[in-house]
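name: query_chain
kind: protein
chains: 1
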Amino acid sequence: MRITNNMIMSNTKTNINLTKQLVDKYNTQMTTQKKISKASDDPVIAIRSLRLSTNLTHIDQFVDNNIPDADSWLDVTETALKNMKTLLTDIRTQCVNGSTDTLTADDRNTILKQLTAMKSQVYTEGNSDYAGRTVFTGYRTSSKLTFQTDSQKTTYEITQSLGADSLEEKRYYTNGVTVPGTIGTATPDCDTDVKEYSYQRIRLGYGSTTSDVTLSIDGTDTAFTNYKYSSDFDPSKLGDDDIAYIQETGEFVLGKNVSTSIKGNNSKIEVNYVKTGFDADDARPEYYYNCRDISDAVTLDADNNIKRDASGNIIYDNPDKIVTYKNYDDNGERIGQPISYTVATGTELTVNTQAKDVLDTGIKRDVDELITVVQNAINAHDKVSQIEGMMKQEQYADKDSQAKLKTYLDAAKQEADYADNNMQKTYGQYITKFDNHMNKVNLALTNSGSTQSRLTLIKNRVEEQKTTVEELKSTNEDRDLSDIIIDFYAMYNAYQSSLTAASKANGNTLLDYL
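structure:
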């Protein structure tokens, strides 16, 4: 085969160019310390690099954002739960103090002050938030658990389901003693026949309801007598088969046969009621019950009474403005509202605790009742002191005034004894109730702690996975600088040699041999 000078020149330029390309390749690698600079350099490395980069991006999202966010949410929740536990423990301590039978006036006043101070704090921790998102309110993270101000025109229709275990004993009293301003012929007779009655009752989540109340026991609508105020209810007239409802306190008082039947049949109870007006720090019903906010759908008069038709039914002026909330499905099962974070590939972690699993609406009502009971005891003893003071006054030193005051004093002491007995029993009863409240908080703390432990394990695993992927990505893409330098100088020398060879190969022509 004949080789011409043109062929030699062409092949020489081709070889020099290929060598030059390799020099440029290693020079680029020396700068970037990467095996390839574009996909066409090595498609296999490029595809693997894309896959590993995508995987590493996901892992970085888990490690840098999702896991820290979930961890912070759990930290906020745990702190709030611990504060709740401390508050409930303090209230329980007051229950223990109040359940003793050796209380002095100072003891009762101290208990009253302590409970009054703690009352407004009951749901405060339920408003805890992380980065502006309330942690105990399910999906409605932009809203607080409680009303922030007094909302006297806010109106809800509430459906509350209860069981036989919601029955509890409560004592009711008649004929409280009235301390007379003066004693004389015109002094009205004082009620001195103070009596105590004990009944089972069902207490709703809220008091001060309207008269729009229906009671269903085991699916059957049940009749009852409606009273607006506690003072309207005469416990001595409640028959064994009767039910009384007191709007002021939001409680059904059950006759003995009724309560026995409910307990014996383990009955299911459903109450539908309407409440207008909420105080600041009251828990919002939409986080606890199936309910409807009808505030913008009804009209209230100057006394905040709902506008009604001639039959007494509520008039809905703007029914399209009714807002419906559901916390339980048609089978009575709780509807969960989990806030979840994706903390690893294919792994989601629920981090939130819902208020209805920790703080029920009964806690504040329990504190209210504890305050009322101790206040009644204080008032009863004040009556005794007032009458005893009157008996020491010279103007009542006559025999008739002393006899009358003695009658009042005996009745006042009887009322004070009943009040002390009621306080002792109620506070003793509420020790168990607050134990149950704390059990819920303890369970939530345990669940939060176990979730945090699981998150820590996942975090460790994901961080190890990140290290592994980074190593794989480095192995796939990166080159050691010393190796690049060796290859570069080898190819650079080859390039220089090819230039030298080319100059000599093209230096001679056929004419030199003629």
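note: The first helix runs from residue 5 to 32.
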